[in-house]
Structures are given as structure tokens and as C-alpha cells.
Design goal:
mainly alpha, elongated, 0% strand, 11 helices
């Protein structure tokens, strides 16, 4: 939600334009004491770690209660255990950092934590061993607490907190004023799609337009208007048929010559002699 800073500037500019000077002053004061930090995850994690590092238990609880009321209580039921687990992990991180303090302040901070949190934690099994923490000289070497004093575990808690806040803020319903950027991007994308569809429609219309048909008909008419090739009447007869007919005629003539003449011609000559 980095764009919220820009929205804040728009609101301030609008209030100044309307002449709401007292409202602008109150708005700026609220921004200075903004617990939500403009919904910037890194700033919220930084604020939580500040309370933990200085062992400000009341400040941490108040800040977490604010986040719980604003965001976490509005989540679905199946997400609540994960939120509670991170909250308890932050409490354990608070104790680990408090136990690493030097001098008598260490035991004092740890004892103060359990004195304030006893009603909430005493009935939970995962906190049973933690009540021994004020009486252990070197808890970082104790098998029950050594894991929590490692850098890897502490970093994993902060990463889980960061991921939880980032996911929740992304899913939060936003007011209309903050959605102007996404709405503008949507309008621009729709305009581009409309322009693309118009171009495709024009191309299709050009392909199926009457002028296109007329141009193709003109091309066909030009081809038909040219001189037609001369066609021989006998060109349709296959050549092999003509060759076989000629061979048959030549063979018949040769046979008649061998027989001494044509029978038809002989009958004609005999008739002429009888007449004489």
C-alpha cells in the first residue's frame, strides 16, 4: 500500500483547496501519530521490534491490540490460530531479549513480564517451562530454551510476522479513493483492447467488401476478353488411335496385292467382258 502516501497528499491538497485549515491541521497531527504507519509492513515490524528491544511490554501489547482490532479480528476463523502463534512467538522473543540484558535488570524485566501475563499464559502447556526462565542462570545453554536464543529462530519470527502483515494488507478491502490507480490501469487496458478489436474488424470488412468482389470479377473478365486459342476438330482424337488405323489400312492393301487384285475389281472387269 505504498500509494497511500500519495492519497494522503491528495486529501491534504483537497482540504487546502476547500479552505479547511483546521481540518488540515488535525489531519497532519493524526498522520504523525499514525499507528498503522501507512500500512507499510517494514515500518510496523520496526515499531514492534522497538517495543521489544526496550522491553516496553505495555507499548507492545497496546500496539498489538490495535492491529488485532483493526485487522486480525476481521480475518477468517481458520487464520486466527496462525495469528495467535505469531503473537506468542513475539512474547517469547521479548523474553529472550530481556533475558540477555546485563545486570539485575534482566531478572527484573522477565519477572515483570510474567507478573503481567500470568493470567493469560498460566493455563497453556507451551508456557509451562517458560515460568522457570527467571531462575535459570544461563538459559541460552538450557535444552528447553537454547533454540530460542539462536539467530535463526529470531529471524524466522520476524519473517513470519512480515509475511502475515503483507498478506493481510493485500487482502484488506480498500476505499474507493485508494483504488484510483487500479481503475485507471483497467480503463487503459480496456481502451487498448477496443482499439485492437476495431482494427481487426476493419481488416475483416475490407476482405468481404463489394469492392473486393468487383476487383476479382474485373480480373476474371480481363482473362476471358483475350483471344481464344484455335482448336482443331480432330485434336480431340487420341494420336494412338490414328496410328493404329493407318497400320490396319496398310496391312489390308498388302494382302490384296498378294491375292492378285481386289475381288471387287475382278467382278467389275468380268462384267465388262460379257457385255462386249
Amino acid at each position: 500500500m505504498a500509494h497511500l502516501q500519495f492519497v494522503d497528499e491528495l486529501v491534504r491538497e483537497y482540504l487546502l483547496f476547500r479552505g479547511f485549515a483546521s481540518t488540515v491541521k488535525a489531519f497532519e497531527n493524526d498522520l504523525k501519530s499514525d499507528k498503522d504507519k501507512g500500512f507499510r509492513v517494514d515500518k510496523i515490524v520496526e515499531q514492534i521490534m522497538h517495543y521489544i528491544n526496550v522491553s516496553d511490554l505495555n507499548g507492545f501489547k497496546d500496539y498489538w491490540t490495535h492491529l488485532d482490532t483493526l485487522v486480525f479480528t476481521k480475518l477468517e476463523v481458520h487464520v486466527q490460530p496462525a495469528v495467535r502463534k505469531i503473537e506468542y512467538s513475539l512474547y517469547k522473543l521479548y523474553l529472550v531479549i530481556a533475558a540477555q540484558s546485563t545486570g539485575g535488570v534482566r531478572n527484573e524485566k522477565v519477572a515483570d513480564f510474567f507478573a503481567k501475563m500470568l493470567p493469560e499464559l498460566q493455563g497453556q502447556s507451551e508456557w509451562r517451562d517458560w515460568f522457570m526462565l527467571p531462575y535459570i542462570q544461563k538459559p541460552e545453554e538450557n535444552p528447553s530454551f537454547s533454540l530460542y536464543f539462536t539467530r535463526a529462530w529470531q529471524d524466522s519470527v520476524l519473517v513470519s510476522l512480515h509475511n502475515l502483515l503483507a498478506t493481510v494488507f493485500q487482502c484488506m478491502p480498500q476505499p474507493t479513493l485508494t483504488s484510483y490507480e487500479s481503475d485507471a490501469a483497467l480503463v487503459k487496458r480496456l481502451q487498448e483492447e477496443i482499439a485492437t478489436l476495431k482494427g481487426k474488424t476493419l481488416q475483416q470488412n475490407e476482405k468481404i467488401s463489394p469492392s473486393g468482389h468487383q476487383s476479382r470479377l474485373a480480373q476474371y473478365s480481363e482473362r476471358l476478353s483475350g483471344p481464344l486459342p484455335l482448336i482443331d476438330d480432330f485434336s480431340a482424337i487420341p494420336t494412338e488411335h490414328l496410328d493404329s488405323g493407318l497400320r490396319e489400312a496398310k496391312g489390308l492393301r498388302g494382302l490384296l496385292r498378294q491375292m492378285g487384285g481386289s475381288p471387287v475389281m475382278g467382278r467389275k472387269s468380268g462384267r465388262s467382258h460379257s457385255q462386249n
